[in-house]
Amino acid sequence: MINVTKTFLPPFEEYTAILKKAWDKAWITNNGELLLELEKKLKDYLSVDYLFYCNNGTLVLQMALKALGITKEVITTPFSYVATTNTILWEGCKPVFVDIDPHTFCIDAYKIEAAITENTQAILATHVYGIPCDVEKIQAIAEKHNLKVIYDGAHAFGSQYKGKSLLSFGDISTCSFHATKVFHTVEGGCLICHDAELAEKMYFYRSFGHIGDDYYSVGINAKNSEFHAAMGLANLQHFNKIVLQRKAIAEYYDECLKGFPVARPKVTEDVTINYSYYPIVFDTEEQLLKTTTILKNHSIFPRRYFYPSLNTLPFITSKYSTPNSESISRRVLCLPLYYDLAKSDVDLIVELLFKSFNK
Asked: How far apart are CA 183 and CA 216, in angstroms?
């Protein structure tokens, strides 16, 4: 069986050697030494000032909205995982969907201003597949209209724009460290900001708003464990090697699919991506479905990622015009891509893709 992704696991002895530090002290949660060590190493790796390692990539989005005082309208993308929209709704805000750029699949920054109203408070955009949003244009719009900017960087760990981590842009950036991600801690995520006052809020939000018997603010339980932090510390040592291997596999796909009638998202020269996914876009949904069936019949399981366009979810009551997102979401398919995917497996996948068209 070949799945769309496969979790990278470090050598078991490496993981347990790190975990033993916490095991010997019987300190396995509540911001232990391994968690603090991971936070420091992640800050150094990303060159950011404030980073909080938390228990998943959805809670950090909720914390971001709460910390920035967002209660009304949030301009967002319809082409993302459902957590992006659910977070806005969960926090009692209204998502306002703006269509995507048909080349990058990120929110179309040139369509944002037309969606701004007197109730707009923030822009929450996703760096899709680790490809950057137009961060400069979005920042200029935010400054002009006094809006906050949050980036859902669930796919963006290791991606850079003009030599800077994608997670260093916006008022707040978040990331997912779920087991399906290029860098993972089994379950986990982080929140990054650049302001000391905002960072203090996040510190308390993560731990019920108190230290010992002293209470400072409202808070939730977004802490992560030493077991998860140990996995992060072990995987971080392998991260550069993982990305290089995924790049080699993606480039092999590129070579094999030359002339194949599918489109790919555009990556400009000033961007370094992390090869988190390998999406292809068919001309029609019918062709996608036919190809997917053939692959599945050979125990190969790609993913329609992202599908459907989030503005079409049954619990979204307002209507939005997002023709690019709705069209691409029906036609996009992520092919298997992971660290130790064999060339022979890629050859089989490509062979079946060509067969699906010949039929």
From this structure: 33
Instruction: State pTM to two decimals.
Output: 0.97
Residue 77 structure tokens: 């993308």
For the chain, list the domains and their CATH numbers.
2-236 (3.40.640.10), 239-358 (3.90.1150.10)
Give pLDDT tens digits along the chain (359 positions): 999 999 999 999 999 999 999 999 999 999 999 999 999 999 999 999 999 999 999 999 999 999 999 999 999 999 999 999 999 999 999 999 999 999 999 999 999 999 999 999 999 999 999 999 999 999 999 999 999 999 999 999 999 999 999 999 999 999 999 999 999 999 999 999 999 999 999 999 999 999 999 999 999 999 999 999 999 999 999 999 999 999 999 999 999 999 999 999 999 999 999 999 999 999 999 999 999 999 999 999 999 999 999 999 999 999 999 999 999 999 999 999 999 999 999 999 999 999 999 85
**C-alpha 358: how far from its chain's center?**
35
DSSP code string of 56-93: -TTHHHHHHHHHTT--SEEEE-SSS-HHHHHHHHHTT-
